[in-house]
Amino acid sequence: MRLTVSGDQLEFQQGETVLHVLSRHGIELPAACRAGFCRACLLRVLHGDPGSPGRAGLDDALQADGYFLACTARPGADLTVALADADVFAPAELLSVQPTGNSVLRVRVRPRRPLDFRGGQHVALRAPAGIVRVYSIASLPAEARDEGIEFHVRLYPGGAMSGWLAGAARGDAIGLGQPGGSCYYRPEDPRCPLLLAGTGTGLAPLAAIARDALAHGHGGPIIAVQGGIGPDGSGGGPRTAGPAWPSPIRSRACLLSRGEDIVTAVAAELAGLPRPADTRAYLCGAPRVVARMRRALFMGGLSLRRIHCDEFAPAAAAVGARGDGERGDGERAGGE
Amino acid sequence: MTTQTSLYDRLGGAPAISVATEIFYRKVLADPALVRYFDDVDMDGQVAKQAAFLCMALGGPSAYTGRDLRMAHAPLSGLTDRHVDLVIDYLAETLRELGVPEADIAAVGATADSVRGDILNR
User: Fold this and answer.
1) Closest partner residue to B43 among A295, A301, A305, by Cβ?
2) Beta bridge partners of A31
3) For chain A, N or C: smaller number of CB within 10 Å?
4) A291 and B43: CB-CB below 8 Å?
5) What is the pLDDT of residues A278-333, one digit of tens each?
6) Is the CB of residue A152 less than 8 Å away from at least one CB of chain B?
């Protein structure tokens, strides 16, 4: 079978991902998660069918425009694609990078053209060197109009993206990918209880969801549960993202150092609600903690369809313009 | 046999399967004898498999075959008739909670029982 790109015809085998075919032929895409999550490797089909796995999770509009993900697409027949790069990463500029303590950078970015997103979704950032990482959005669209889109970025020693951001200056160019993820407020469900739980920089998107809910006049109770490690906030404590939970929201902090477990706390909060099964839960943070919370809520009677998660998956490969497939540097997409 | 519609259709098709799957999966995960066979990391993958199984057992449009079941369960060590009995019981409990008539529950149980050999690799 043949993959045609920019006039080149590349042979490929059944079962191979498009990302792999391109890489094997020396064409490197920005790719971060390689699991259909970060959208860094978005391509557009010109002729043929990339198959449904490559389109899974993409918005209908993107699918309709022929976009698919190179990392999850395993075409079964000849395919012609366009390198969608320039269309995918919208040009943007850095407005500010402020250290907030606890090794977290507060980054503000202004896109050159309006970006359609909802508070709590995630988006891939691309630094000039081709480094791509996914971060959760800490602003609401209305806030971003004046202040730029805000991200809370954990500074990792040796982290390619966080390191670049730490040294970047106002006005530096940066690319913004397509916002995605199901962690956002649903105005069509205005009376359900909302249970927000997260760790580390995962609290920033949760705070955005909470503000969005209040801005919509949400009628149900809103409960925030935040996890951390040390009482001083070290290692990803409650102060990391510093959300000031607006007044109607009841918040609860769990510190591992005090033997408090966020999973137990979240399950207890669900059980204490008047209509647990009507709740919508939003979980952001490290994958293992998110998975445990998700299971606990499910066992507590909440449908998986009402549990919206954003797992801060580690960068699977620090693939830049060189794309040598090296292992990730441990830098994570917005979380612990 | 009559030509009546399948229980799958009478229950409400795919949306009903989705509801039933969650109830069923919750019961299975709560059972200490079964939980180790159900990977809790990939809950979505598990739910998809349970849904395919329920779809087959309820006479829905399923592509699930005995061969799939055989391959899926082959790596699981220590599976016995008792495990299969438990799963069939939970399936019956699930349908009962959804108001399915006992005659249908018995028929679904028989369908599930018919793949026992594939599940236990014999």
Assistant:
1) A295
2) A319
3) N
4) yes
5) 999 999 988 888 989 999 999 999 999 999 998 776 554 333 322 222 223 334 44
6) no
Q: Is A142 within 8 Å of chain B by CB?
A: no
pLDDT band at B41 (very low <50, low <70, confident <90, very high): low
**Closest approach of A35 to chain B, Cα-based (Å):** 14
Closest to B90 measured CA to CA, from B46, B13, B34, B14: B34
Helix axes B102-113, B81-97, angle to 10 degrees: 150
pTM above threshold 0.95: no
Tell me which chain A residues have a C-beta less than 8 angstroms from the C-beta of B22.
298, 303-304
Residues with Cβ within 8 Å of A286's Cβ and at least 6 positions away in sequence, in order, are A199, A200, A202, A311, A312, A335, A336
Q: Is A123 exposed, middle or buried (CB count within 10 Å of its CB: 0-12, 13-18, 19+)?
A: buried
Tens-place pLDDT, residues A220-235: 999 999 887 544 444 4
In this predicted complex, what is the ipTM?
0.88
Instruction: Find the largest Cα–Cα distance for chain A.
Output: 61
Identify each DSSP E strand in A128-206 by its residue range: 132-136, 149-154, 173-176, 194-199
